[in-house]
Amino acid sequence: MGLVWVMTGVSSVTAEDFEEIVVTADKAMGRTVTAELITGSGFLLAPVPDSSDFYYLTNKHVIEGSRALAVFFSSNGEIFQYNAKVLHTSAGLDLAVLRLSPDGDTLPDPVFLPIASRDMRKGEPVAALGYPGSADEIVSNDANPALFETTLTQGAVSKVFMGTWVRDGSSLEIVQHTASVNKGNSGGPLLDSCGQVIGVNTKISQETPSGFPTNGTFWASSSNSIAGFLSIVKVPYYVENSSCGSDASGASGSAMTRGVPAWVYIVAGVIGVALIGGGVTLFLTNKTQGATGIKPVGRGRKAALRLRMAGSPDTTLTAGQLKAGVTIGRSSENALVVNQEGLSRVHARIDLQNRVLRVTDMGTTNGTTVNGQKLTPNTPVQVTTASDIRLGGIPLKLAKPGKS
Question: Which of 321, 313, 316 lies closest to 305 in space, CA to CA?
Answer without folding.
Answer: 316
